[in-house]
Amino acid sequence: MGRINKFVILYISLLLYTSSNWEKMIKKIFFTLILITLISCGKEEESVKPVVQTLTESVYASVTVQPEGMYDVYASASGIISKIYLQEGDTIAKDQLLAEVTSDLSKLNKENAQLNMELARKKYKGDANILDRLKDELEANQDQLTQDSINYFRQKRLMDKGVGAIVELESKKLKYDLTKKQRAILKKQYEQTEVELKSNYRQSENAVEKAMSTLSDFSIKSNIDGMVYSLMKEEGELITQQTPFAKIGLRNSFLIEMRIDEVDIASVTHGQKVIVSLDAYKGKTFEAKISKIYPIKDEKTQTFNVEAIFVNPPDALYAGLSGEANVVISHKDNVMTIPLEYLTEEGKVITDDGEIEVKTGMRNLERVEIESSKIDTSTKIIKP
Asked: Does residue 121 sit in the same domain as residue 91?
């Protein structure tokens, strides 16, 4: 009101100095006084007195509640979903079959692999396999070698006694040597063929196992004990390795996902207390504590992802519940505070005695601690 009085005196003085018509001047002064009175009566200066209270400094974060361990389920191979064995909300066990995917190409590959394995088995172990034929040839060669050996050494003994012709001895020796060479060739052929047939048979077995494994990739299974929170596909739809089939997470264990601004992340540490308010529970707050701080910043939102766990969770929680949270950074009892908007940008407060510079301490979004002894709880502080 003192400022308004000074303004009125200055304004009237100006009118007196500049006006040459007294009647008009009196009217202007009269209307000015009425206007000043209306303004001064309609608007009183806002003021407060400092109060002693408990002050909590906190960091704000947006909140989303998610089941712990939740992940997107993908198929290991592309195909058509032929059967789904569950619904949203169902409880599931680890390795439980969730759905089956079919692929004509994979079935054809499996059948071809089985046919090739059967053919390789017959060649290696069948009734009329190649090894048995080579074995028969080796036995026949052995009989021939025995006979040629007998004939050669008999003729040699006769020649030692001076009986027979040298040509006949040489002929029988040549035949004996030739049969020995044939045996060596047959034996080597048998060994090489056995190695090749055995290798082909094992390769065909591996091909069948691979084809069967590929078929098993068409069975979608769960990695955890939990619950199905969302199904993204229906029977008869095409699914690829890049499109999720479902969302699965733990049933009764939830995490609080928070997004904290990069200017505040340095104040956040593991185990800090968190006060959570959820849109689904108006007027209620729930206590939690920081459990994990992800060390990389999201460049899109310029925030850090932080997780917390409930200390006293609500009776019912659902995936995707949203709300707000305050991470408690510090806490003080019995401190003198004023509303933050009553502090000027220069760190001063306005009183009836003028502006006073004060020393401030902890603050939150609403109030600031006043550590100065220049004011007390009886001091009237005017809003700037």
From this structure: no
DSSP string, 160-212: HTT-S-HHHHHHHHHHHHHHHHHHHHHHHHHHHHHHHHHHHHHHHHHHHHHHH
CATH no. for residue 308?
2.40.30.170
In tens, the pLDDT along 192-247 reads 888 888 888 888 877 777 766 665 557 889 999 999 999 999 988 988 888 999 99
**Cα–Cα distance, 349 to 340 (Å, whole number):** 10
Element (H, E) at 28: helix 22-42
Q: How buried is 265 (Cβ within 10 angstroms: 0-12 exposed, 13-18 middle, 19+ buried)? A: middle
Q: How far apart are CA 308 and CA 290, in angstroms?
A: 4
Q: What is the pTM of this model?
A: 0.53
| Region of residue 160 (left: phi > 0; alpha: psi -120 to 50; beta: else) | alpha
How many folded domains does the chain comprise? 4
Amino acid identity for residue 28 in this structure: K
Whole-Å CA distances, 6 to 31, 36, 331, 381: 17, 11, 45, 21
- Rounded to the nearest 10°, the torsion over CA 207, 211, 213, 217 is 150
Tell me, yes or no, whether 153 and 27 share the same domain.
no
CB distance 246 to 230 below 8 Å: yes
Which amino acid, residue 292? K
Is 18 strand, coil or helix?
Answer: helix
User: Do the beta carbons of residue 298 and residue 231 sit within 8 Å?
Assistant: no
**Residue 206 sits in the same domain as residue 230:** no
**Domain with 354 in it:** 54-68+253-382
Boundary (domain end) residue, out of 193, 228, 250: 250
pLDDT digits (tens, 9 = 90+) for 290-342: 999 999 999 998 999 999 999 989 989 999 999 999 999 888 888 888 888 88
In a domain, 154, yes or no: yes
Instruction: Round to whole Å and give the CA distance between 200 and 195.
Output: 9
Give the rounded distance of the alpha carbon of 304 from its chain centre: 14
Q: Are residues 60 and 39 in the same domain?
A: no
